Amino acid sequence: LRAALEWGLTDPDQTKEMLRAWAAMYAWWDARGHGREASARFADLVRVAEAWGPVEARAGVLVMAGLIAFNKLGDSALARARLEEAVAIRRDGESKPLLCNALFNL
């Protein structure tokens, strides 16, 4: 499973689709206490997502990364930076529920 996640980072056509797998893996990492691994994996995904520009998929990655930074690492500064960036992207979008989600987590 970890190899598949790594592969998804290297194939630009698959990376956005891999976001769903990463989100599902969050529950696995959370249940087993693998917060550091989750944080490292999402840090990789945030770096890859930078190439996407300010799109909703990137905002979703930033929200998940922010939650991991706060809930698993206790790093409120990193969580705030990621969530603020997600809010900025979602303010330009058309989905008010997604904006509310980002603001709620901030």
List the helices and strands and how they pair.
Blueprint: H1 2-10, H2 12-31, H3 35-49, H4 56-71, H5 76-91, H6 96-105
Helix pairs in contact: 1-2, 2-3, 2-4, 3-4, 4-5, 5-6
Describe this structure in words.
- It contains six helices and no strands.
- With 106 residues, the chain is an all-alpha fold.
- The termini are far apart.
Throw out a few tags for this protein.
106 residues; mainly alpha; 0% strand
Q: Care to give the gist of this entry?
A:
With 106 residues, the chain is an all-alpha fold. It has helices at residues 2-10, 12-31, 35-49, 56-71, 76-91, 96-105.
How large, in whole angstroms, is the Cα Rg? 13 Å
Specify the helix fraction band. Answer: over 70%
- The total count of strands amounts to 0
> Beta fraction of the residues?
under 5%
Query: Sheet bearing the most strands, described?
Result: none
Distance between the termini: 30 Å
Q: What is the average per-residue confidence, as pLDDT, rounded to a whole number? A: 83
Total helix count?
6
N to C succession of SSEs? HHHHHH
**What best-fitting shape do the alpha-carbon axes yield?**
globular
Give the uncertain stretches in residue-range form.
none
Structural class: mainly alpha
How would you classify the quaternary structure? single chain
